[in-house]
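Continuing from yesterday's entry. The apo prediction looked reasonable, so today I'm repeating it with S-adenosylmethionine included to see how the binding region is handled. Same sequence as before; SMILES copied from the compound registry.
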Amino acid sequence: MGRLDSFIRRVSAQRDCLNMAKDMIANIPGPVLELGHGNGRTYDHLREIFLDREIFVFDRRVAAHPDCIPDDAHMILGDITETLGSALDQIGGQAAFAHCDIGTGEVERNARFIATIAPMVDALMAPGGIVCSDQEYTVACWEAQSLPEDVQPGRYFVNRVKR
Ligand SMILES: C[S@@+](CC[C@H](N)C(=O)[O-])C[C@H]1O[C@@H](n2cnc3c(N)ncnc32)[C@H](O)[C@@H]1O
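Holo prediction written out below.
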């Protein structure tokens, strides 16, 4: 598949999974977490679909479109392996939804990184909460959910926190 088609499929999968998650957390109170701000594309979408929820964004830097930058109280800056562990007070309670789009390009380094942050993300999640991710996270109490119809297995991941 060409790079353009691959990109289109990836962002379509993101959008479809985020939209699906909205309904999946309808009865779960709590804020929304965006791990990986990037250019703010998915943050902007989360703002559109989660009108009634606080959204907290994690990244080591702000490099997004100026229209897609949260206020200081909702932008948690720094290396995520350091900021996640102390974020619970700032986000005001466990999260109903987390979108993790924070992978690096290198397979082995990435696997170590995801293994490091997986329990930290889990600790911030409310029971019944949903995690959508670009990488596969292995957490004992997370249960893989069916993907939207047009999303191929392995392209995106949706898990519910079962505890
Ligand atoms: C793929 S981009 C996110 C794209 C974003 N979801 C969007 O739609 O625009 C990944 C982001 O993760 C951030 N990142 C990667 N490793 C990080 C780390 N260890 N701590 C904090 N941020 C990190 C990068 O700075 C980058 O902005």
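Comparison notes:
- DSSP finds five helices and seven strands in the chain.
- The chain has a mean pLDDT of 96.
Will overlay with the apo model tomorrow.
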